[in-house]
Specification:
The complex is a heterodimer. Chain A is mostly beta strands. Chain A is built from no helices and twelve strands. Chain A has strands spanning 3-5, 10-14, 19-21, 24-26, 32-38, 44-50, 56-58, 64-68, 73-78, 87-94, 101-103, 107-112. Chain A is globular, with a radius of gyration of 13 Å. In chain B, the strands form two sheets. In chain B, strands 2, 4, 5, 6, 9, 10 and 11 form a seven-stranded mixed sheet that branches. Chain B starts with a strand and ends with a strand. The mean pLDDT of chain B is 92. Classes of the chains: A mainly beta, B mainly beta. Chains A and B meet through strand 5, strand 6 and strand 10 of A and strand 5, strand 9 and strand 10 of B.
C-alpha cells in the first residue's frame, strides 16, 4: 500500500534562513507527489506537485521541492524563510488508478523573527 | 470568488442529533471529496464522488451519508452524532476521474463539535 511519511512533527527555523520540510514516499515506479500548506483555521492550499519531468519543481510563495527517486523523497524547500511561512505543511501522494491522496501526518513549521 | 465553499463553518450539536454539511465548487471539476481532520491534524479521506457517482468509500460508518445532487455539490449528512465525530470536515474537488495526478482544491472546513 502507498504511504507517505513526514518524519518531523515540527521544524524550527530563523527568518531569512533556508528551510527544508522532509517527505518520503513508498511506491515503485513514478509517483504523483504534492505539497499543501494549512494556515490556522483554514483549508489546505496547494503549493506544488511533481508528476514527471524536471526533478526540481517550483511552486507558490517561493517554495520548491526536489524529487529524488533513489531516496524516495520529495522535500520541500525555500531559500529564505519568512515569519508568514509559519503553518502546517502536508505532503501527499496520488494513487495511480483513482482520485485518491495519501497524506502525510503534517509538519508544523515555525519561523522565528 | 470562493472556489470551494462549505456551510456551516462551525457546527455545535448534541450527541444523537442529525446534521448536514453542504459543499459547493465553482471550478468546473467533476470529482469531489470529503475528508476528516482529527484533533492531531491527521487527514483521512471519507468519500469521493465523480459526476454524482460514488467512487471511494473508505469504510466510514453508515451514519455518514454523502449525497451529490450534481457535480458541483457534495453534501454530507451525519445521523446519530457521537462524541468521536468531533473533527474538522473538509470538502475538496479536482478534475478527472482516474489517477491521482490532479491537485485537489479544499474548502475552508467545517468544525463539528459534538457535546
Amino acid at each position: 500500500a502507498q504511504s507517505v511519511a513526514q518524519p518531523e512533527d515540527q521544524v524550527n527555523v530563523a527568518e531569512g534562513n533556508p528551510l527544508t520540510v522532509k517527505c518520503t514516499y513508498s511506491v515503485s515506479g513514478n509517483p504523483y507527489l504534492f505539497w499543501y500548506v494549512q494556515y490556522p483555521n483554514r483549508g489546505l492550499q496547494f503549493l506544488l506537485k511533481y508528476i514527471t519531468g524536471d526533478n526540481l519543481v517550483k511552486g507558490s510563495y517561493g517554495f520548491e521541492a526536489e524529487f529524488n527517486k533513489s531516496q524516495t523523497s520529495f522535500h520541500l524547500k525555500k531559500p529564505s524563510a519568512l515569519v508568514s511561512d509559519s503553518a502546517l505543511y502536508f505532503c501527499a501522494q496520488g494513487a495511480y488508478n483513482f482520485n485518491k491522496f495519501y497524506f502525510g501526518s503534517g509538519t508544523k513549521l515555525n519561523v522565528k523573527p | 470568488d470562493t472556489a470551494v465553499s462549505q456551510t456551516p463553518k462551525y457546527l455545535v450539536t448534541q450527541m444523537g442529533n442529525d446534521k448536514s454539511i453542504k459543499c459547493e465548487q465553482n471550478l468546473g471539476h467533476d470529482t469531489m471529496y470529503w475528508y476528516k481532520q482529527d484533533s492531531k491534524k491527521f487527514l483521512k479521506i471519507m468519500f469521493s464522488y465523480n459526476n454524482k457517482e460514488l467512487i471511494i468509500n473508505e469504510t466510514v460508518p453508515n451514519r455518514f451519508s454523502p449525497k451529490s445532487p450534481d457535480k458541483a455539490h457534495l453534501n454530507l449528512h451525519i445521523n446519530s452524532l457521537e462524541l468521536g465525530d468531533s473533527a474538522v470536515y473538509f470538502c475538496a474537488s479536482s478534475q478527472g476521474r482516474t489517477g491521482g495526478k490532479n491537485e485537489q482544491y479544499f474548502g475552508p472546513g467545517t468544525r463539528l463539535t459534538v457535546t
